[in-house]
Design goal:
Layout (H helix, E strand, L loop, with lengths): L1 H23 L1 H20 L4 H30 L5 H30 L3 H27 L1
Helix pairs in contact: 1-2, 1-3, 2-3, 2-5, 3-4
Main location: membrane
Keywords: Membrane, Transmembrane, Transmembrane helix
Membrane topology: Multi-pass membrane protein
């Protein structure tokens, strides 16, 4: 049931991320989302108690990851040439599907090796930070052009 709540929140926040991107710009929404994911994944990496810190951190991750998905699709519409938006959206959607498949495999491997998920969430924080920096650099420059 908890997993379903995470997924429902992430799906609803995809809509919010898209709407916010229309108002504030997809790069700005992405920056805020990736900042939140970086910080919240770092918190979870230290394995806080589930109540209240762990629960709030996981719900925040669901919200930020969902909103960033909406911002990503808004960014595709902004950056891709008009005649390729459909194809690019398909590729981005496929990559998102892999994003729902590969990380759980990595987390399972981390758990088997380490006996906990801390390193996996630290890797998520590092990945989110790298994505944040990429968004602040090349993506922001591309969105201006």
């Amino acid at each position: 049931m908890r997993t379903a709540g995470f997924v429902v929140l992430a799906v609803v926040m995809r809509l919010v991320g898209g709407a916010l991107s229309d108002r504030l710009g997809p790069v700005n929404v992405s920056v805020w989302c990736f900042t939140a994911v970086t910080l919240l994944a770092a918190v979870v990496a230290f394995q806080p108690g589930l109540v209240p810190v762990g629960t709030l951190a996981f719900l925040g991750l669901a919200a930020a990851l969902g909103a960033s998905s909406g911002a990503t699709f808004a960014l595709v519409a902004k950056l891709a040439p008009a005649h390729t938006v459909g194809a690019v959206t398909g590729v981005v959607g496929a990559a998102g599907g892999l994003g729902g498949f590969v990380p759980p495999l990595i987390m399972g491997a981390v758990y088997q090796f380490n006996g906990d998920y801390g390193v996996g969430f630290a890797l998520l924080a590092a990945t989110a930070l790298a994505t944040l920096l990429f968004t602040l650099g090349p993506v922001r420059r591309g969105a201006r052009g």
